[in-house]
Amino acid sequence: MTKFKITALAAALALAGSGCAMLEPRLPAAQADIPVSWPMPEQGKVPVADAVAVADVGWRDFFADERLEQVVAQALENNRDLRVAVLNVERAQAQYRIVRADRLPALGVTGQMERIGGDVPVSEQYSVNLGVAAFELDLFGRVRNLSQAALQGYLATEQNQRAAQLALIAQVAGSWLALGADEQALAIARDTLASYEESLALSQKMFDLGATSALQLNQTRTLVESARADVARYSGQVAQGRNALALLVGQPVDSSLLPTQLDIGSSGVAALPAGLPSEVLLRRPDVMAAEHSLRGANANIGAARAAFFPSIRLTGAIGSASGELSGLFESGTRVWSFMPQVSLPIFQGGRLRANLGMATAERDIALANYEKAIQAGFREVADALALSQTLAEQRTAMEALVAAAQQAHDLSQARYDAGMDSFLVLLDARRSLYSARQGLVAVQLAEQANRISLYKALGGGWVETVGTTP
């Protein structure tokens, strides 16, 4: 299978990096060997021109249930982890502004009054100065590279915030659907328990009349207690699911927004193109964050290289000085000063070379992390695509199994009532029907969860297309 090594992206990064500063090195080519496109299931393929990029599908368009939309919106507004991610972006932005300010002269105004006395007559000296405090001439790109590294750090933090938002959307949707599945499984268990209790009451009457054996009575009782245990288990799962959802949302969720059963139409990914290129991974927030981290690490190499060259700092001021306060701003009192300072590193005990080596190693680590992010993204998408077809087939098979088990149960019940079958045959039919119904719920939940995983893996979900962004 043909592979692509992201050479186009690496070339673009290198061109962008080469213009940042004289000493900033070119970015090495990324070597994340992955296939050009994913193996796509035959079902659901559409031409590339007719497909909508998943990264362009807003999460409100992805989720069809209005209750789920409201729960996700509340989570985006109140979730504490997402709030921390947003605050981290603001902190990174402030850090970038601080570093960027070093590229501009810092102006300051100073005023001074000096009085000298003793055995000599008292004298006074007044002065006011407007000056530049230690402005560095960035001849070798040190300050420029540090500013570029801070900018890329801010952009990486912003992408990390988007990745956190996408992960939160997926977690909330998954928890909401899991709660619906537990509610449906609990309803099935309760219906089954009620049916078994009716059979147990009938068996008890027949046993009292001597029309049935103690074995049959106890077999019916085992069904009742088993169903009762399932009701208790699913009740606990429902309570835990509500607590987990409240934690993700950041506040208790109104009962009107909670699901009562699993709706297989709550979410879904639009039809994917037949030859969906793997370059769409470059739009994933985590991959974009790794790219910005790589750019920042590369800029740090330029700053470490510039440390080998002289640094020139300028300090100057212009103002007025006078022996009398009343004559401070009169003509003939103007003064100025200009103090350039050149610092040339000669012997640092290997410190500068070690700093350069560390910056280079950090750049190589960032490159490896960038390649790893792309490879991990490809695997996530490939796994989700592989499961999408098999889970659909499992759901179809389970639906057929439930229908067949229901017919078998009805026939077995009729034959038992007519005295044609033993109670063991009816008992087995009841167990098969109950197991098939619960299995169908599990497969439906797995299919919905895989759709959400595919949507997240393709980088969609954090774009807001309808309404106001929370």
TrEMBL record:
<dbReference type="Pfam" id="PF02321">
    <property type="entry name" value="OEP"/>
</dbReference>
<keyword id="KW-0812">Transmembrane</keyword>
<comment type="similarity">
    <text>Belongs to the outer membrane factor (OMF) (TC 1.B.17) family.</text>
</comment>
<keyword id="KW-1134">Transmembrane beta strand</keyword>
<keyword id="KW-0564">Palmitate</keyword>
<keyword id="KW-0732">Signal</keyword>
<dbReference type="InterPro" id="IPR003423">
    <property type="entry name" value="OMP_efflux"/>
</dbReference>
<protein>
    <submittedName>
        <fullName>Efflux transporter outer membrane subunit</fullName>
    </submittedName>
</protein>
<dbReference type="GO" id="GO:0009279">
    <property type="term" value="C:cell outer membrane"/>
</dbReference>
<keyword id="KW-0449">Lipoprotein</keyword>
<keyword id="KW-0472">Membrane</keyword>
<dbReference type="GO" id="GO:0015562">
    <property type="term" value="F:efflux transmembrane transporter activity"/>
</dbReference>
<feature type="signal peptide">
    <location>
        <begin position="1"/>
        <end position="23"/>
    </location>
</feature>
<dbReference type="InterPro" id="IPR010131">
    <property type="entry name" value="MdtP/NodT-like"/>
</dbReference>
